[in-house]
Amino acid sequence: MRPSVSVLQLDTQFPRVPGDVACRDTYNDEIEIIRIPGALVRNIVTSRPDDIDIQPFEDAVKNARGDVIVTSCGFLSFWQKHLQSCTTRPFISSSLVALDRLSAVYAPQELLILTFDAQSLNESHLGDHRRYAGAIRGLSPQMHLRHVISTGQSELKTDVASDEMVDLVRKSRVQSHKHILLECTNMSPYKQALKTEFELPVSDILTEIERIRPNTIARAFL
């Protein structure tokens, strides 16, 4: 049976907890995880996405078997059109593709975009939506989730990460914010905590997968 989703996963070691795009428990059906050798966080999370060695991702897209193909890092959004051209199946490089839809509803000051590294995510990652660059906020280097991902720790304290995510939004949110967009796929496990605390709609890589292929994502993570 063809997998519902093929996930092109970076070459990482940190835990993939339920709600993460690369965790099998996030889905209702079987998925395919394709680890991209050499695709380290420090090589992909960059302000110069045109410097990324895209060949391994091209090969993975061409060999992927899933109904939908996604990546585990939104910093690949720069390559959305290029990688989509490598396959006839739907391809999602990043939740930032949601800006095609969200920009018709929300002005830049109404959207809060949360990323792993706000110093590296820039206009080049936003495609036709560069005016939303001012909406970007990121994890600080001291935050638990960023430390675990950056250093490849084997233990992820989800309660700590959740509390820190809520605190980040509390400090970043202004009255005009009406929607939260999680660029980082590793933030999705904390989406429900954000919804509960702030009563705002939240979009992420999982909502974009579900939009293309309904009933793919377990309800607890939508």
Could you give the topology of this structure?
Layout: E1 5-9, E2 31-35, H1 41-44, H2 55-63, E3 68-71, H3 80-84, E4 91-92, H4 99-102, E5 111-115, E6 136-138, H5 144-151, H6 158-172, E7 179-182, H7 191-198, E8 202-203, H8 205-212
Parallel strand pairs: 1-2, 1-3, 3-4, 5-6, 5-7, 7-8
Question: How would you summarize this macromolecular structure in one to three sentences?
Answer:
With 222 residues, the chain is α/β, with parallel strands linked by helices.
Structure characterization notes:
This protein is an alpha/beta fold and 222 residues long. The protein has eight helices and eight strands. 27% of the residues lie in helices and 14% in strands. Helix 6 packs across helix 7 (191-198). The two termini are 25 Å apart.
Number of helices: 8
Count of DSSP strands? 8
Please list the strands of the largest sheet in the order they lie side by side. 2-1-3-4
Radius of gyration: 16 Å
Q: Which strand-content bin applies to the residues?
A: 5-15%
Task: Give the overall shape.
Answer: globular
Mean pLDDT: 97
Assign the structural class, choosing from mainly alpha, mainly beta, alpha/beta, alpha+beta, or little secondary structure: alpha/beta
Low-confidence stretches: none
Q: Give the termini distance in whole angstroms.
A: 25 Å
